[in-house]
Design a protein that fits this description.
The structure holds 2 protein chains of 2 kinds. Chain A is mainly β. Helix content of chain A is 0%, strand content 51%. Chain A contains no helices and 11 strands. By secondary structure, chain B is mostly beta strands. In chain B, 0% of the residues lie in helices and 54% in strands. The chains are: A mainly beta, B mainly beta.
């Protein structure tokens, strides 16, 4: 199967700072990637759809100015959590699909802790 | 809004027994469903999928059943092993390109 890589795996930042998370498709091109957030003992909640070369599409209730998404190439999408606060602490996961397989491929996730 | 599944129950099984994990979905128009396994601190791992034109699909030690009449999915794991301990999610593909809505998940604990 295809490989999706996230970086970093974990990050601790101070309240008020911004954090960037990268999602890369290593062996395929992805015009669309998806960003999910998962709080402890809960399911994955879709945050936004990252579209290569155009604006991201955000789910209802997700602040686009707080969660900046950039999909500048066919293999890289970035999620920047701006002015992070402790309530933004969560597990962030990206996914992408190639044009051959039907299934979505997930990154290993990024654990964000805001202190 | 759309939702798949309503609970986060825990299923405890003895090693070697069969496990059945259930999931309800709400969008009757969905035509593709996937089961994922998630271990602590990791991203979801694909287990098996099924399209709406099928009611059963088998993999290695796993079987997925789809009942479109009652909008229900189940995952059967044969001869459950300690390595199967994880959280299992069903997911519904709501858009071409793998936009997924996840169920609440089920914790599977395998007792040795």
């Amino acid at each position: 199967g295809a490989v999706v890589s996230q970086h970093p795996s974990w990050v601790i930042c101070k309240s008020g700072t911004s954090v960037k998370i990268e999602c890369r498709s290593l062996d395929f091109q992805a015009t669309t990637m998806f960003w999910y957030r998962q709080f402890p003992k809960q399911s994955l909640m879709l945050m936004a759809t990252s579209n290569e070369g155009s604006k991201a599409t955000y789910e209802q209730g997700v602040e686009k100015d707080k969660f900046l998404i950039n999909h500048a190439s066919l293999t890289l999408s970035t999620l920047t959590v701006t002015s992070a606060h402790p309530e933004d602490s969560s597990f962030y996961i990206c996914s992408a699909g190639n044009t051959v397989d039907t299934e979505a491929f997930f990154g290993q996730g990024t654990r964000l802790t805001v202190v | 809004g759309e939702s798949v599944g309503l609970h986060l129950p825990t299923l405890s099984v003895q090693e070697g027994d069969n496990s059945i994990i259930n999931c309800a979905y709400s969008n009757s128009a969905s035509d593709y469903f996937i089961w994922y396994k998630q271990e602590s601190g990791k991203g979801p791992q694909f287990i098996i999928d099924i399209r709406s034109n099928m009611d059963k699909r088998q993999g290695q030690r796993v079987t997925v059943l789809l009942n479109k009449t009652v909008k229900h999915l189940s995952l059967q794991i044969a001869a459950t092993q300690p390595g199967d301990s994880a959280v299992y999610f069903c997911a519904e593909n709501i858009q071409y390109g793998n936009k997924l809505v996840f169920g609440a998940g089920t914790i599977l604990r395998v007792k040795s």
